[in-house]
Amino acid sequence: MPKVLAERLRRGLDVDDDDFDALYPSWGRWLSRIHWTPVAVARRAAELLVARPGTRVLDVGAGVGKFALIGSLVTDGVFYGIEQRKHFVQAAQAAARDLGTRRAYFLHGNMMALDWSMFDAFYLYNPFVEHLGSLEPLDGTIEVEPKFFSVYVRFVRQRLLRAVPGTRVATYHGFGARLPRTYQLEMRVWCGTAPLELWVKRREEI
Question: Which fold has domain 2-201?
Answer without folding.
Answer: Rossmann fold (3.40.50)
